[in-house]
Amino acid sequence: MSSQENQEKEKKSNRGMERSLGTASVFAICTGAMFSSGFFLLPGLAAEEAGTSLPLAYLCASLLILPAIFSMSELSSAIPRAGGPYLFLKRSMGTLMGVIGAFGKYLQLLLKGAFAFVGVGAYLSLVADVSIQPVAIALIAGFTFLNLLGVQQTATTEKLLVAILLLVLAYFIAAGLTEVVEEPTNIKDRFQPLLPFGVEGLFSAVALVFVSYAGIGQIASISEEIKEPSHAIPKGMLLALGVSTILYLSGTFIMFTLISTDNLQGDQAPVATAAAQFTALPLPVMVIVVAALAAFASTGNAAILSAARYPLALARDRLVWSRLGEVDKKGVPKVSVILTGVLLVLLVLAFDVKGIAKLASAFLLFVFLGMCLAVAIFRESRLKEYKPGYRSPLYPWMQIAGVVTYIALIILSGLEAVGFILAICTAGSLWYFFGIREEEQHQSAAIFRLFGRLANRSQATSEASHMQLPMLSDAHFSDVVKRAIVFDLEKEKEYEEVIQHAADALTDHLGGDRAEHAERMKEDVRHWMSPSRAHVAVAPALLHGIEQPEMIVIRGEIHVDDNEYKGLIVLVDDEQSSDRLMGLLSRLNAVIRHNDFPEAWKKAEAPEELKSAFLEQGVRAMTISVDGSGPTASLDGCKVQNVELPEGSLMALIYRQGKLLVPHKDMTLQKGDKITLVADCDAVPQLTERFSLEED
User: Recorded GO terms, molecular function (predicted)?
Assistant: First the structure.
C-alpha cells in the first residue's frame, strides 16, 4: 500500500462526526423511536395484564424511565461520543462491561429495526396485496441509503415521519375525546374497579409497556453529532417523553372507553378498532395505516442511525475491524451503516424477529441499570476529568430509584427475558476474553478509583494514584500515539497555515468550533513551542471541552518567524487537564530525545510507521520519593539543576502536597516530594542502581 493510500486511510479513521443536530432533531429521533408497537399493538396485549388500569400503567412507565433519561443526559454531556452507552459502561466499569453493553445494544437495535420494517410490511398488507418480506427488505435498503447520505438527511426524514405521525395521532385524540364526551356515563362504568388485577397486575403491565418508552435512550448513541449536547439532549428527551406520555395516556383512555374489555384484550389493532367507533369526526382506516407506517418507518430509521454507531465506537478502540471506524467527509461511518443494513436484511430473512425483539427489549433494562450505576461511579470516584455539562437532579436518589426499579422490572419481565440478558452477557464475555482482550488498549476504569476511596485511602494516596491512573481520559501515552492525527506537508508552509490545517483536522476528528480551535491553537502553540532533536518543534495546546488528550503530528518544512522546522508535534488537551498534559508532554520529549528517533522520523513512509517511531524507543516512567533517609535523602534541599541524572533520563513531574509541579532548574526539592522520572532503556539500570524505583 502506498504512502498516500495509508495517509488517506488514516485520515478517514481519525475523522470525527459533524455536530449538526439540534433540539428539534433530538426530539424527532426520540419520539420516532418510541412509537410503533407501543401505540398500535401493545395496548391490546397490555390490557390483558392491566385491565382498567391500562392508562395508569403507561403513566407509571413514563415516570420510571426518568432515572435513565437523567443519567444518560449527564453521561452524554460528559462523554459526547458515538456509541455513548458503550463508552459510559467501559469508562466507568471497564472494557468487559462496555463490550457486553455494545454487543447487547447493537443486537437489540438490529432486532427492533427489523421488527419495525416487518411491521411496515404487515400494515401495508392490510390495504394492498403485498408480501411482507420483500417490502421490509426494500425499506431497509432505502433507509440504509438514506443514512449513507448524511445525518442531516436522516434527521430531516425522521422529522417528516414524526410530523405525519403526530398530526394523525392528534386528530385521533381529538376525535376520540369528542366521542367520549358525548357519552360521559361510560367513563365511570368503564374504569371500575381501577385495579382489577391488584397491584401485582399493574406492575406486570408496567413491565410490559415500559418498552414503549425505552427507545428514547437511543439518542445517546449519536451524541457526537449533536450541537450543545448538554442542552439539546435533556431538553429534547424530556420534551419527547412529555408528548409521548400525553399521547399514550389519551390514546389508551380512548381505547378503553370506546372498546369493550373483552374486545380490547388481545386486540392487535386497537387504534383501528377504536377509530371505527368515531361518528362525529370519522377517521378512515387508510389514515390509521399511514400513521402506523410512519411510526414503524421512523422507528426503523432511528434504529439504523443509532445502531451503526456501535461498530464505529468499537473500531475506534481497535476492538473490531478498523474499516468500521472510517468516517467520510460528511461525517458518515459508511462501512458501519452498510454492515447494519446487511444484518437487518439477514434478520428479516432468517428469523421471527417479532418474538426475539420482545426479549431483546428486556436488555434495555440492563443498559438503563448500567447508566444509573455509571453516574454513581463517576460522581463518587471524583475524577477531575469527569465534567458533565448537565447534571442529573436529585442525585443520588434518582439513580438509586433507577437501580431498584430496573432490577424489579427485569425480574417482572419473566424468566425468558432474564435468560436472554444472561445469554447476552455470556456471549459478550466470551467475545471479550477469547476475541478482543489482547487488542484492548489497557485503561483503568473509574470504578477502581472508587474502590480506592471505599478502602479509606488517604487523600494524598488517592491523588497520587490518580496521577498515575488516567481512568477516564485514555491518557496512556501509547493510546494517544495510536489515535494521533498524522499528515505530511507537500511544500514549505507558514506557521498560520499549518496551524489552521491542524485545527481543521482536529475539528473533523472531534467536532466543535473550527474557528475557536484554530485561534486557541495558534496562540498556545506559538507561545509554548520549543525545538527538539531532528529540528522538530513540540508544543501543547489547551482547548475547551476536549474529552481526552490528542496528538497531531505534522512533517514538512514549517516557517515560524525566523526559524525553520522539519516538523511539528502538538499535544492537545482540555484546559482543565493541564497536569495530565504536562505528564504526556514530558513523556513525548523523552521519546524524541532518544538517539534513534531522528532517523526513524525521517525514514517513516506511512502514518503507522511514524507512530511506531514514538512507541519503539523503550522509554519508561518511574517514581521516586524524597525521604529523610535512604538513597533519596540527598535530594532534600537540592535544586533541580544540581540533580545528576544519567544520559537519556529527565525529571518530568513533581508531586507535592496534592499538586503537580513542572520542574525548573531553580526549584528546590523537598522531603515528601514524589518525582516522576522518564528514561530510555539504557538509563534504567543506572537509575535503578542509584534509587529505589517503581515503574509506573
Answer: monoatomic cation transmembrane transporter activity
